[in-house]
Amino acid sequence: MASLGPRFAGLELLATAVVALDERFVVRYANPAAESLLATGAKSLIGQLFLELFAERDALERTMGEALTTHWDYSAQSVTYHRVGREPLPLACTMTRIDGEGLALLAELRPMEEQLRYAREERLVFEQQANRELIRNLAHEIKNPLGGLRGSAQLLERELDKPELREYTQVIIKEADRLQRLMDRMLTPHRTPRVETLGIHEVLERVRSLIKAEFGLEIQRDYDPSIPEIVGDREQLIQAALNIARNAAQSGAKTIAFRTRAVRQITILRQRHRLALELQVVDDGPGVPEEIQDRIFNPLVSGREGGTGLGLSLAQTFVQYHQGVIEFESRPGRTIFRILLPLT
Q1: Three-class SS of residue 95?
Q2: Do 64 and 105 contact (CB within 8 A), yes or no?
Q3: Cα–Cα distances in angstroms (integers) from residue 270 to residues 60, 81, 115, 117, 182, in the given order
Q4: Residue 10: which residues within 8 A CB-CB, separation 6 or more?
Q5: Contact criterion met (CB below 8 Å) for 301 and 307
Q6: What is the pTM (predicted TM-score) of this model?
Q7: Which residues partner with 281 through β-bridges?
Q8: Residue with more model confidence, 277 or 71
Q9: Do residues 183 and 146 touch, judged by C-beta distance below 8 A?
Q10: Strand bridging mode 230-233 / 195-198
Q11: What b-and-e string marks burial along 226-264, b requiring 16 or more CB atoms within 10 Å of the CB?
């Protein structure tokens, strides 16, 4: 059971909308974030019945009553806030029982879009961790018999009398080498990061030169010069951006653009950051096939024939090592991959 000080210490600085209620569910306090979200000043909110602000009054009243009697937190997937002269606003609402100064409940309000993004990020992190462990174990299990397979093919080749038969052993050796390289790529993320201070635009310029050399494509730039240096692993960040840009080029995109911006007061992986980097990789290719969009960051999932399905999985892994996340939105003719990295 939480308690509030006489001056609501700390709540004034929160980026999350918070409203304090008494036992009759009357608003007794609203922080600045709540004023902004609800587009109403605290003086107007205080004294109002909290339930009258939302369309789901009866259901919300029952669950708030349960929160009071059971002392459990209650999370509503969606409540709809009435805004005068504007479209209704769907919100996620969490209730917490509190004690102090005649107060009973603390309501935390978030836009549903933001709440859904949190859920997607948490699911993505969980899946990435499980996939990394699976792939690491699988790669170790495959590497040992691969070595024996290649060695046996070499020994067999020496015993063959007819040179034309060596063509078949060469196929075995080359395919074993190809699988060996694939296993090495699966195990690459597990090295210790080499952390240094670096400029993100230096990283992107390196990626631009690599894409131009490999595909002959000139990547457009829209850089924010105010972005400060970051602390990270240069090679991992280069590889993350390169994998995304290379996927775009391989998909048949004619134009690719890098766009950087500094964003303030943003939540990444449930952590609130005062300042973060938003790096967008935008292309005009055919887009990510709809049937694999939910699994695009999973290992071995590829929308391209002949693809290994490791590029985006590795990119997400490298970005998560930097406490960041990759999001995307895609339709034919426009795909945006968005890398979010904390700068503080």
Answers
A1: strand
A2: yes
A3: 25, 24, 10, 10, 33
A4: none
A5: no
A6: 0.56
A7: 258, 337
A8: 277
A9: yes
A10: antiparallel
A11: ebeebebbbebbbbbbbbbbbbbbbbebeebbbbbeeee
3-state secondary structure of 277: strand
Q: CA–CA separation, 252 vs 284, rounded Å?
A: 8
Please name every residue paired with 105 in a beta bridge, in sequence order, or none if there are none.
21, 97
> The tokens 């015993």 sit on which residue?
159
CB 190 within 8 A of CB 181: no
Give tens-digit pLDDT for 181-209. 767 766 665 566 788 999 999 999 999 99
> Tens of pLDDT along 50-102?
988 888 788 788 878 877 777 666 665 567 887 666 677 888 888 888 876 78
> Of 322, 330, 278, whose CA–CA distance to 303 is shortest?
330
Place of tokens 């449930």: 270
CB 42, CB 27: distance < 8 Å = no
User: What six digits make up the tokens of 80?
Assistant: 């709809």
Residue 136 to residue 183: CA distance in whole angstroms: 9
Q: Which of the 8 DSSP states describes residue 216?
A: -
Structural contact between residues 256 and 220, judged by C-beta atoms closer than 8 angstroms: yes
Note the residue count of the chain: 344
Long-range CB pairs of 206-209 (<8 Å, 24+ gap) are 206/238, 207/238, 207/241, 207/242, 207/245, 207/258, 208/258
66: Cβ–Cβ under 8 A, 6 or more apart, which residues? Answer: 72, 74
- Report the DSSP pairing between strands 2-3 and 17-21: unpaired
